From TrEMBL:
The keyword Nucleus does not apply. It comes from Brevibacillus reuszeri. It holds the Pfam family Cytochrome_CBB3. Residues 48-123 form the Cytochrome c domain. This is Cytochrome c domain-containing protein. Gene3D superfamilies: Cytochrome c-like domain (1.10.760.10). Keywords: Electron transport, Heme, Iron, Metal-binding, Transport.
Length: 123
């Protein structure tokens, strides 16, 4: 009985090859569009996260590290992503370092992660 069923399926597919081709191409197009929308959403979310992080940096870090990250009282943060990982940047923000205060009372964990992620992109 299963051979009969398989034969009928093969006959159906052969007789409707154009329909199958259209179906497969439609699925491929839908899949490609879906991935494009997801990529755009991720890019928008990333841009928004960068804006939030830059705003937090301006509010809490700029006075010591300068608008261009070149450093004033604090060290330069240019290319900090090549020197420290995101986790290490978060640790410095949590613990403070060499005259820099801890930011645990000023920034939430999520805000620190946002700023550290943004800074770690500076390679």
């Amino acid at each position: 009985m299963s051979e009969n069923r398989a034969e009928r399926l093969c006959a159906f597919m052969k007789g409707n090859s154009f329909v199958w081709l259209v179906l497969i191409l439609s699925l491929a197009v839908i899949s490609a569009c879906s991935n494009s929308e997801n990529t755009n959403s991720v890019q928008i979310a990333s841009a928004q996260a960068d804006e939030v992080a830059a705003s937090l940096y301006k509010k809490h870090c700029l006075s010591c590290h300068a608008a261009d990250l070149s450093g004033l009282v604090g060290p330069s943060l240019k290319q900090v992503g090549t020197k420290l990982t995101e986790e290490q940047i978060i640790a410095v923000m949590n613990e403070g370092a060499k005259g820099m205060p801890s930011f645990t009372k000023m920034l939430s964990k999520e805000e620190m992660e946002a700023v550290a992620g943004w800074l770690s992109k500076n390679e």
